[in-house]
Every structure is written in structure tokens, then in C-alpha cells.
Predict the structure.
Amino acid sequence: MSSAASLEELAERFVLDEARMLDDRRYAHWPELFLPDGWYWMPSQPDQESPHTAVSIVYEERRLLELRIRRLLHPATPVENPPALAHRHVNSIVATVQADSSIEVNSLAVIFVLRERIQHILSARVRHELAQTGDGLRIRSKTVRLLNCDSPLFAFAAPF
């Protein structure tokens, strides 16, 4: 097995492990997966090319992610009272090692969210840009392109 193939397999495993972490509501550890200058972006328009050209559903650098997670975990957060349950299904994963040794991982993801006995379904194309560090792979950027990003969305606070 070549080192590129094993690195691609590690990247695929990383994305699946991240989804499981979020399903298990281990939100406090999620920002640790990001580089200090890493960011998370959810565009509000299907063809939006940058978080700087239009308002986004979410555009947060790691320190804002950490703040959002602290708020999400606070017992008085209304959108998480009672806490929502979620299952993330990640498939069609394609990991590609780039010339700079970063790894681009593209996937399709569906999240089923159960909140107050009502189930919601969101679908997205997800792109992770991962960097190799001494501590393993870390997220340089994560872009979640919701299928219905330009439609009204239900209130959800959990990360995709």
C-alpha cells in the first residue's frame, strides 16, 4: 500500500470519526479538530464562492467555534432544550492528497435531527481541507453546502 493511499484512508477515517463525535454530542472536543486558524463555513446560496461575498448561514474561525460550542452546551440554550439527537450519514467520500501535502476530502452527508419529537433531514456536499500535523490530521477548513441553503431552515444549533 502506498503512503498516499494510506493517507487518503486516514483522511476518510478522520471524516467518519468527526461525524461520530458530533453524533455522540462530544461538541466540546470538536474545535480541537481544527487548526488554530481553521474555519467552518456554511454558505447561504448554492453558488456562493466565498464567505466574504454574501451573508453565510455560518462562517466561524476556530475561536468563534469554541464560543458557539460553549453556548450550545449551556443548559439554558433554548434551541437545545431539550437537546436534539442526530445521526450523520457520510458517504461518497473521496480523499485526494494535494501537491502541498494537504488532503481534500469531498463527501455527501445527510443529518437526521430529532428535536421535540419532530425529525428534520438536511443533506449537503461537504468539503474538508485537512492538514498533517505532529498530532495527526487537523481541519484547515470545512465547507458544508446544504442542498436547501437558500430555503427557510428550522432552528438547529448542532454542527453539521
Notes: The chain has one domain: 3-146. The domain at 3-146 is CATH 3.10.450.50 (Nuclear Transport Factor 2; Chain: A,). Helices lie at 3-23, 62-73. Strands lie at 34-42, 58-61, 85-97, 103-115, 118-133, 136-146.
